Amino acid sequence: MARSPKAVVLVVAALVATAFAVTPAYADDPGLNCAVTATASITVTPNPVVYGQNALLQWSADCVSNTPEDVLVLSGPGLTPSTAVFPVGGGSQSVFISQPGTLTWGVTVVDTSSDTGYSRALASTSASVTGVTTVPNLLGDTQAQASAALSAAGYVLGGVGTVVDCNNINRVTSQNPSAGTVLLPHSSVSITLGRKPTPPAQCP
Description:
Blueprint: H1 5-21, H2 30-37, E1 39-45, E2 49-50, E3 54-62, E4 70-75, E5 83-87, E6 90-96, E7 102-111, E8 119-130, H3 143-153, E9 156-164, E10 172-176, E11 188-195
Parallel strand pairs: 2-8, 9-11
Antiparallel strand pairs: 1-3, 3-6, 4-5, 4-7, 7-8, 10-11
């Protein structure tokens, strides 16, 4: 039984579509092949991370037909610079936790060939930050009290200055950074103590 011209056109169109479907657009571009097919994972240990300490990033990635054109880009806190480029594969890197909140690291695969410049986000991981410390309030303390309070909070006493303040003689009148500032452990905090005026001036 003869087919109608319309049926023949539909059959030909279907065959052409099938032919293109089984030949990916990136088949002649190995770099893009990898970027399109890549998978990855990334973790951070410990999780949650600890403020002022190192954490360990570990990642792995794979793809079809990896070439020198294909790289991983890792992004996130503690990386120097904030984004770092590695060959597709896997590895680990220590990162220093220097900010509070919830931190996120990501892995992106990039085809660096000039004809495509294709990139795709593959995986990410997040961790909350624990152990965040803040500068204590030292106002009104003696120098010895201020030093002890800083030591208990994980900080050290920095510079000690003086200013004429008859209401706070030998007491802290100001501090830098101010109370409540989020600061990395072992950082220094400077203070200013009140003192009497230089004679012959006197306190009222």
